[in-house]
């Protein structure tokens, strides 16, 4: 990674062009200097997330070429004009949902509901990108306004959340998406209280994060559901008190394990069949929380009469209802205190050149979370 006099840098990154199936290419792109209110972060760790896989597998459409990745932690190495809350050397976790900070939702403490955010367009809040082709200058786009699978990134100051330097970068990166989403789904969306029963369908990275957050909240019992016995074993290590293999009689077994249905159920996969089944797993008056994200255009059918008759609630969880400046430090503090063990959520640590293998392992269901490490 080199820097010119104009501060435009040559940066290695994992790029998706859509011309070679689901494959990423590791290329050198140009990254412009941070502008007013922005910071450049040297990425130290980036998680391999299912949201990226949706793009690679053609289930979600984004501007191309895309610098992939959105789950990251690193060190601030340059600040633009007007930056007041961060300094070179600060350790930060990146928030991919970059809310406008000005609308009514943002002012009301709900940045996740901001309608002006450009993150889903793979653009910074001002509608531009700092990435370009190193050879011809054509634009490249940071996936979810982050492009975290790169040696360095440029983001708004408010999207780089300072955390305690004692949190390892690999763990810190997960706080930016999977762990943060799981924690937020429990604490912000479902508002689980001690003693409530819970079921989590899907024991991948987000599902395990939900289970860990449920244990932190004092939920009991915590029932994990998956098709993989290996993942169920991981779920028990994360805090599940009961592990169930998915099957046609799942609702009956969940009701047995929870004494009539769970108070709250979480779907952490993004599959229409499991999302449709979720209300069956909760007791009357219970909450069903959709955390997993399905492919674009897929519809979920729900029995509206039964839902109303039994007073059940369906909750959509967008980024766990997170307020990053508040919630990221809370999660980091819980990790440092030992109350929220997160190290076991990482099943593989790889280099940038192994990014395609990491996604292939995800497709095969072999890993909970792979993290790309960048040596500095």
Task: Give the SSE map.
Elements: E1 2-3, E2 9-16, E3 25-31, E4 38-48, H1 50-56, E5 66-67, E6 72-79, E7 91-94, H2 104-107, E8 131-133, E9 139-142, E10 152-156, E11 160-162, H3 169-175, H4 178-190, E12 198-201, H5 205-217, E13 222-226, H6 229-238, E14 242-245, H7 250-258, E15 262-267, H8 272-277, E16 282-290, H9 304-309, E17 313-316, H10 324-337, E18 348-350, H11 355-363, E19 370-373
Parallel strand pairs: 5-9, 12-13, 12-15, 13-14, 15-16, 16-17, 18-19
Antiparallel strand pairs: 1-2, 2-3, 2-5, 3-8, 4-6, 4-10, 4-19, 6-7, 7-11, 8-9
Helix pairs in contact: 4-5, 4-10
Q: What would you say this structure looks like, in words?
A:
The protein has helices at residues 50-56, 104-107, 169-175, 178-190, 205-217, 229-238, 250-258, 272-277, 304-309, 324-337, 355-363, and strands spanning 2-3, 9-16, 25-31, 38-48, 66-67, 72-79, 91-94, 131-133, 139-142, 152-156, 160-162, 198-201, 222-226, 242-245, 262-267, 282-290, 313-316, 348-350, 370-373. The protein contains 11 helices and 19 strands. It is globular, with a radius of gyration of 20 Å. Helix 4 packs across helix 5 (205-217) and helix 4 (178-190) crosses helix 10. It has 376 residues and is of the alpha/beta class. The strands form 3 sheets. Strands 4, 6, 7, 10, 11, 18 and 19 form a 7-stranded mixed sheet that branches. Strands 14-13-12-15-16-17 form a 6-stranded parallel sheet, with helices on both faces. Helix content is 26%, strand content 26%. The model is unreliable at 1-6 (pLDDT under 50).
């Amino acid at each position: 990674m080199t820097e010119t006099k104009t501060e435009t840098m040559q940066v290695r990154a994992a790029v998706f062009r859509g011309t070679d199936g689901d494959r990423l290419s590791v290329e050198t792109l140009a990254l412009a200097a941070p502008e007013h209110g922005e910071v450049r972060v040297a990425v130290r760790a980036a998680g391999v997330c299912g949201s990226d896989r949706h793009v690679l597998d053609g289930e979600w459409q984004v501007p191309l070429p895309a610098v992939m990745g959105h789950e990251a932690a690193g060190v601030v190495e340059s600040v633009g004009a007007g930056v007041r809350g961060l300094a070179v050397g600060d350790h930060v976790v990146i928030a991919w949902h970059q809310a406008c900070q000005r609308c009514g939702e943002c002012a009301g403490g709900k940045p996740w509901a901001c309608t002006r955010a450009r993150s889903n367009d793979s653009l910074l809040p001002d509608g531009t990108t700092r990435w370009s082709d190193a050879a011809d200058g054509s634009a490249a786009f940071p996936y979810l306004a982050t492009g975290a699978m790169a040696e360095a990134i440029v983001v708004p100051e408010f999207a780089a959340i300072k955390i305690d330097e004692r949190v390892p970068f690999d763990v810190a990166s997960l706080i930016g998406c999977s762990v943060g989403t799981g924690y937020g789904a429990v604490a912000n969306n479902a508002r689980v209280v001690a003693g409530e029963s819970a079921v989590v369908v899907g024991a991948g990275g987000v599902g395990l994060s939900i289970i860990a957050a449920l244990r932190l909240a004092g939920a009991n019992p915590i029932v994990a559901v998956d098709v993989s016995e290996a993942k169920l074993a991981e779920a028990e290590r994360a805090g599940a008190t009961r592990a169930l293999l998915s099957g046609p009689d799942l609702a009956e077994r969940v009701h047995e394990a929870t004494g009539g249905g769970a108070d709250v159920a979480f779907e952490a996969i993004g599959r229409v069949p499991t999302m449709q089944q979720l209300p069956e797993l909760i007791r009357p008056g219970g909450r069903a929380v959709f955390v997993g994200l399905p492919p674009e255009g897929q519809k979920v059918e729900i029995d509206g009469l039964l839902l109303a008759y039994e007073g059940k609630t369906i909750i959509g969880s967008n980024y766990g209802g997170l307020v990053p400046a508040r919630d990221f430090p809370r999660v980091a503090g819980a990790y440092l205190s030992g109350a929220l063990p997160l190290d076991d959520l990482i099943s593989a640590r790889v280099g940038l050149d192994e990014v395609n293998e990491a996604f292939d392992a995800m497709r095969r269901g072999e890993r909970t979370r792979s993290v790309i490490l960048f040596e500095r």
